[in-house]
Structures are given as C-alpha cells and as structure tokens.
Design goal:
This protein is an alpha/beta fold. It is built from 5 helices and 10 strands. A hairpin with a 4-residue loop joins strand 2 (about 50-60) and strand 3. It starts with 10 loop residues before the first helix and ends with a strand.
Length: about 160
C-alpha cells in the first residue's frame, strides 16, 4: 500500500497510535495567524469540520481544553455555567504552551503535557469526520469524532457562537 507523505511523530500522533485511534495525516503550509480558515483553505475542506483546540482556564486558574468548530467562537459564559465554574477565559499564550506542551497554532488535545479536562462542542460529535491539530503547526489529522468522547474522554457541552 502506497503511503502518503509521512510527517515525523509528535506527542499527539504517538498518543493516537498508543490508543489505537485510526487517523490520517494532513500536512499543509502553515500560515501565521491563518487559524482554521487558513488550514481549511489549504486542505480544501469546510472550516466547520476543522476543529480548534482552545486552552482556557477557570476562575481558580485551572486549565481546560475546549474543542470547537473552526467557524464558531466559544461562549465562555455558557461554558462556565455548564461545567460548574464561575468563569472561564482563554489562557495567555505562554500559559497555554506550559499546560499543553504545544505552541499556539499547533495545540492538539492528544498527548498534552498535563492531563486536563477536555470539553467538546456537542455538534462536533455528530460529524462524519473531523480535522484537528496533530501537534505541530501546519499539521492536522483527520479522524472520527467519536474518538474524542470514547478515547480522549471529552465531555459534550453546548457553548458555540456563530463566528
């Protein structure tokens, strides 16, 4: 079987392999501040199925990850209410890097430095396939979204705001 271009291992791909999660690799030319719009354009897929991994923290500065559609924003008020926190806010980039072990633009929910709670926008779980960061800038992996809940243990929430 011919292999596509193989990207070197990342903590995320190692984690996926260790947990027997089937995925395919999708390298692309990283665009500074391009976000999910840039990656979806580069890969020719709908931005709605490109999932961003956001590092946030609650009022006690405890970190958490939120997985959201690329074309949506997170309602931090709704998220805080659903997870039983007073407030939730995005982490500063250097704090996010420390918690996840990944650089901003390359944050994956798989193989993070620290184990933190992961929340997934519920409608993501209804998609057939998603594209999510593979642990490096310019590198997404595609997989079935059920793996987020079944293997990663992500808890469903409803906190999406149209972008």
């Amino acid at each position: 079987m011919a292999r596509k271009e193989h990207v070197s291992e990342t903590p995320a791909t190692q984690w996926l392999r260790r947990h027997a999660v089937a995925f395919s690799e999708h390298p692309y030319a990283y665009e500074e501040h391009g976000g999910t719009e840039g990656s979806s354009r580069a890969l020719g897929v709908d931005e709605h199925i490109v999932i961003k991994t956001l590092v946030m923290q609650d009022e006690a500065a405890k970190p958490l990850l939120v997985l959201m559609h690329g074309d949506c924003k997170v309602s931090t008020k709704n998220l805080a209410r659903q997870i039983g926190s007073k407030s939730v806010e995005p982490c500063k980039p250097e704090v996010a890097n420390r918690h996840s072990g990944y650089l901003i633009g390359g944050t994956s929910p798989f193989g993070t430095r620290k184990e933190v709670p992961v929340y997934v926008e519920e409608s993501i779980l209804a998609l057939d396939r998603i594209y999510i960061n593979g642990g490096r800038r310019g590198f997404l992996v595609s997989l079935v979204p059920a793996a987020l809940r079944d293997v990663l243990g992500a808890k469903p929430v409803q906190c999406a705001l149209a972008d």
